[in-house]
Amino acid sequence: MRRSEVRRIALERVERLLRLAREAYREDPDRARRYVRLARRIAMKARVRLPRHLKRSFCKRCYTPLIPGVTARVRLRQNRMPHVSVTCLECGYIYRYPYLREVKERRRRRAERRKGVGSDG
Fold first, then answer.
1. How far apart are CA 63 and CA 77, in angstroms?
2. Fewer CB within 10 Å, N- or C-terminus of the chain?
3. Residue 89: which domain range?
4. What is the distance between the alpha carbons of residues 92 and 105, in angstroms, rounded to a whole number?
5. Degrees (nearest 5) of the Cα angle 94, 97, 101?
6. CA-CA distance, 20 to 13, in Å (whole number)?
7. Is the alpha carbon torsion for 106, 95, 70, 44 positive or negative?
8. Domain assignment present for 76
9. Quick one: CA dihedral 107, 110, 116, 119, positive or negative?
10. What angle do CA 114, 118, 121 make, to 5 degrees?
11. Is the dihedral of CA 42, 48, 52, 53 positive or negative?
């Protein structure tokens, strides 16, 4: 089997395990954590780089699936650099993801719109 096939299959399995972890959390949190650990082990073994949305879907400290409002608190913060703050409610670990790029893009679009409106007259 070629390396690309192995990686594709590994990524499919990782996605499935992380989805199962989110679904299983309510009934059995320990099983959900086990699914996350398995998914990480498969990804590392196959040397698959996880996409951002998968990487951010579980706590790297306690392996709990991060479900907003259930196992995670999500807040938008403005101090210094604008960022999304995700707190794991199991272990208390805090993740901060910057969103400055999105803010800059929004400002640029707004400025372009204003220029477009002013130049019509």
1. 24
2. C
3. 66-121
4. 32
5. 165
6. 10
7. positive
8. yes
9. negative
10. 155
11. negative
pLDDT block averages, 10 residues each, the chain of length 121: 93 97 96 97 96 95 96 91 93 91 81 73 46
3 state SS for the chain = CCHHHHHHHHHHHHHHHHHHHHHHCCCCHHHHHHHHHHHHHHHHHCCCCCCHHHHCCECCCCCCECCECCCEEEEEECCCCCEEEEEECCCCCEEEEECHHHHHHHHHHHHHHHHHHHCCC
Tokens found for residue 110:
């707004």
Looking at the DSSP assignment, which residues form a beta bridge with residue 84?
Answer: 76, 97
Tokens of 50: 């996880």
Same structural domain for residues 46 and 72? no
Name 68's bridge partners: 72
HSE at residue 86, side-chain half, CA atoms within 13 A, is 19
Identify whether 40 is part of a domain: yes
Q: Is 4 among the domain residues? A: yes
